Amino acid sequence: QLGSYVTLKWLFALFIGVGTGLSAFAINVAVENFSGWKFLATFAIMRHSYLAGFVIYALFNVALVFSSVYIVTSFAPAAAGSGIPELKGYLNGIDTPGILLFRTLVGKILGSIGSVGGGLALGKEGPLVHTGACIASLIGQGGSTKYYLNSRWIRMFKNDRDRRDLVTCGCAAGVSAAFRAPVGGVLFALEEVTSWWRSQLLWRVFFTSAIVAVMVRTAMGWCTHGNCGHFGSGGFIIWDTSGGQEDYSFYELWPMALLGVIGGLLGALFNQLTYMLSSYRRNVLHKRGNRVKIIEVCVVSLITSVLSFGIPLLNKCTPCPDPVKYPDIVCPRPQQHYGNYVLFNCPKDSQYNDLATIFFNTPDDAIRNLFSTKTVHEYSARSLLTFLALFFFLATITYGTAVPAGQFVPGIMIGATYGRLVGMLVVNLYKKDGIDEGTYALLGAASFLGGSMRMTVSLCVIMVEITNNLQLLPLIMLVLLISKAVGDAFNMGFYEQQAYLRQIPLLESRPKRFLRKLSAKDALHTSKVVSFPRVSKVGSIVSVLRSVSHNGFPVIEQLQNGETAVIGLVLRSHLLVVLQTKADFQHGPTPGHENRTKNKYSVTDFVKPVSSKGLSIFDVNLTAVEMEMYLDLQPFVNPSPYIVSEDMSLTKVYNLFRQLGLRHVCVVPRPSRILGVITRKDLLPEVILSMRFLTL
Amino acid sequence: QLGSYVTLKWLFALFIGVGTGLSAFAINVAVENFSGWKFLATFAIMRHSYLAGFVIYALFNVALVFSSVYIVTSFAPAAAGSGIPELKGYLNGIDTPGILLFRTLVGKILGSIGSVGGGLALGKEGPLVHTGACIASLIGQGGSTKYYLNSRWIRMFKNDRDRRDLVTCGCAAGVSAAFRAPVGGVLFALEEVTSWWRSQLLWRVFFTSAIVAVMVRTAMGWCTHGNCGHFGSGGFIIWDTSGGQEDYSFYELWPMALLGVIGGLLGALFNQLTYMLSSYRRNVLHKRGNRVKIIEVCVVSLITSVLSFGIPLLNKCTPCPDPVKYPDIVCPRPQQHYGNYVLFNCPKDSQYNDLATIFFNTPDDAIRNLFSTKTVHEYSARSLLTFLALFFFLATITYGTAVPAGQFVPGIMIGATYGRLVGMLVVNLYKKDGIDEGTYALLGAASFLGGSMRMTVSLCVIMVEITNNLQLLPLIMLVLLISKAVGDAFNMGFYEQQAYLRQIPLLESRPKRFLRKLSAKDALHTSKVVSFPRVSKVGSIVSVLRSVSHNGFPVIEQLQNGETAVIGLVLRSHLLVVLQTKADFQHGPTPGHENRTKNKYSVTDFVKPVSSKGLSIFDVNLTAVEMEMYLDLQPFVNPSPYIVSEDMSLTKVYNLFRQLGLRHVCVVPRPSRILGVITRKDLLPEVILSMRFLTL
Prior knowledge:
2 copies of one chain form a homodimer. By secondary structure, the first copy, chain A, is mainly alpha-helical. Chain A has 3 domains: 2-223, Orthogonal Bundle (Clc chloride channel); 256-501, Orthogonal Bundle (Clc chloride channel), CATH 1.10.3080.10; 521-640, CBS-domain, CATH 3.10.580. The first copy, chain A, is built from 24 helices and 11 strands. In chain A, strands 3-5-6 form a 3-stranded mixed β-sheet. Chain A has a 3-stranded antiparallel β-sheet with strand order 4-8-7. At the A-B interface, helix 8, helix 9, helix 17, helix 18 and strand 5 of A face helix 8, helix 9, helix 17, helix 18 and strand 5 of B. Strand 11 (676-679) of chain A pairs antiparallel with strand 10 (664-668) of chain B, so a sheet runs across the interface.
């Protein structure tokens, strides 16, 4: 049985990898094709009439966005937004209802195709993480809530720990698929999403990530033969900047530090604005119903269309760079291809519109154009500033609407824009070879993500993997160090703020300093603890469950010598199952036999279905007679919960929660005696075995 | 104060990075130059007489190895071996005396220059990890044990936790310097060396790693101008295989799986042989004194010289590949350079000796030659098999001698050899383009390291970083998965075995299954716990410390109502300091005032000097009068040690130790009542603050 359990774990990891890889592929193909058709049609019609071109463009966008918001609001409300704050909550022990349902998965995939294809200022990367997590959870339970396999094998995974492990794999798979960054995915899952780490899990997460990479590569290899329409150009590395700057001089460090400061400031501003807007939406706007949500998104889509079409229209075209001096540059780009130097509303054919190159384009291509190396002076400072202001505005109003929305791509766009600006400044200031604007754009992107999301190692590795430029690692790090420090001076990270808004109690990695002066008993809410005697009246259990919202209750036994003993902790969810089943009600208050309840419940009865809300006490119907019966709680308790002494410092308690991923810790009075002290040596297998041999 | 503490932490990380980077650079320059002179001299003299050439070669080797073993045995015995098992022990709470001394650092650096320069079958990578850790520890205590700064700033770091953090940074810095693999270094430190992980630490470790990369790169850039003698060729990537195989077909999977199996088998065999040899050396040979150790190493060095000179001499030369067909290949290589196709004892100038190319060379170059791409059929199967057998033998007898010795390079050599063999087989079998023997050599290297060291993610990332070939990630992983699984079927990993031999109780990442059925009280050695009353007689404390070897003792107070209360845990090391100081001895058994002992001790008095053996009870001299005095232990206890209930499952206890890095856990009787249950929500800063506001 152990062998098949291990085999199954690895098989599941394989399936998660394959599933997430395929989903990412499907989303990419769909988005690229919708965008491709959209831009082709618009360009074609624009030749005759600009107005008709705009109408087609806007209609395409609004239609796609409407399809997205309609699916989300009607069928999968949990698919809105990024999903990462909720996943962080789930992996730290706080469930948000519905985030791992099958319908959420479908809503997330279809919704992000609509919202990204519809040209909104958001990305598909965050939703892909959520998609990976949904796939993992569904695989773990053998299907959706309604239709599922329930074999003996699958049932082994119906416990909290294995599920969380699977979802962790899913998160890593999502990042790996989104950025084609397997190592970055592993680090993201471990650094950002979970707060604990186990070596065995690490290896499985890594395996999943690698499978995703293989899947995506295989699928992309298949696409190079023209099987996927507009999708298929480009290699495995998303934004390859390996032609960029290889080395750096000391005088370049100050503009890079400047990027860090700008990233910190703008990131913190972005977090604050999105927080305020999301809070307004949650508390006012979105309470008015789905119709308001739909209208809101459509309005945002219309604004986006107007700006991304109209502003480049007002922009003056630039003559193409000298083809003799720069023989590698194709300017303007041919109509059918993606690339730099977009010809948009230009009087001559040897001109390009620099604003259209980044604004009137898919986000992936816009970033590629911003990162592009060896294209000095492609953009004018005025165009970049205009784009920065407008796109920052669009990204701010778009996040929080009822569509799947990732923050990576908008963050990279904003950062790359001011990064490129700073790069232009440096090029003009030093007039030296070897300074590349594209490299500054990359560092700018890192700085904004660092200033907004406050991720560190995983972000660094992801940036290296998406650009395939290991040489820049120390520079990316410098920029991230500064931008995170600057951002932290103002507010919390983006995901933490969003989690706070949703009332998900995430524990930060560093406990606050004032916790040191407090002890465990200071964290206890009430002076009186709510506990049950071993054999309780059904009615009193029900009334307690109705009156308090606790999820865990100590169970106390009255010993024959008059003393009491704590026999364990019983969970609300388990009590609800027992109350609903009614099989264990008894007429008298005498404790039953220990083995009485065996085989009455299978282990899965006590597992809260991962993807639904679970039972509530108000769903349980009991007759007056049943209310007068008794229940022996002993078989249902967790007999050894983690305990701390009342005067343990809260910092230690905090670390206990974080490092072990706990949900409950029992506070006990200062012990009156100690039975012994266990050290590491005592836990070595050979020591334990020899000791037990001696005592036999 | 908080600000300067944080600043200092980062400064220390910077210094560790700079120091480790410089040490690695110094070792590299010295080793390459010694080797360069050695080979140049040997080749020059060989033109006149083979015998004289051999004598020079052997003398050079024995002299370097003798200097290494002399330094190690006379001044720095803790510098022998790899150091990684001891570091794992240290970071998991078990100190090995002397591993972090200044003299160990010096011995490690000089010793590895001698042993690697002297051509022994070992590497400088493991010792570099130890070097980084020593540097970190010395920086943390502001100097060596004798000479050190003792400013207010440094004293803040004189605690266990900050020291372990610094040493973790040092380990990562060492790997980063050894392989120029910053991300691999971070993962190595976290996966392999420590068993716990904290997000804040992660970021600092990463910073250190990146600083090392910058240092090494800067130093190497300086060397390209010919400032460093024989050192200076080659880029930042040690063994760049980016010209190798980019893609793979499905039929290549079985030979890769085969590599995994071979790696697992040979790795397990290697572990077993080195374990038996080390055990023999520890228990018999090395007990006979330093002279035996020195003779042993010199004999091994002589054997190595004879084999690496003589065996290529017996080998028949191969004609160079057709210069028309392969215009890129320089064959034979010019005398002054390193490279493939070594001309050694060949009758014609258009021939090369394939065995000398790998055997009569520095290890780094040999590996480069084995990994080399687009050099089909460079080696004959007979040469590779000969080399494999001989080098496996040499690596086995060399490890465990009294010189600093890393296992990475020998492992890579062995693995690359059979990898190349399998690659030749595949090339001959399928006769297709795009199959590269060098890529198989790389996978073979990964498989042997996986089969011997059983590392996973960090090894994978290190292999990718040393070869700069991200494409191969999934293949490396496949090979590692198989080789680790095969190896695990036979014995423990290399470092675990060596730690076991040194009686360092490392807790494996996965608790054994039988622990589930046991509870905390089963791990208690004796039925009676050794505890002290709050006010104890000095004499009884001394006699207890002499009679038992425990490191932690519960302190019990007799309350006025006749009950007892545990007031905390006192450490042996703290007791020894108090006994030696004698300042707190009192004449009567009444407890003193609480604040009495303030200012008598500075916090550093209680810190065991990290790099020496610490006090022993037999160092403390007390008069008969003092023995009759009393000591109030209350000021010296840790008032809130971690506690577990007697019936908590040992698996949970095990995880508590591992995840929190604990040394002691107190076992208490099942509690009779519970004061309350803390949940995650209760620990949110805003919840605690609002509650405290209410209770005011």
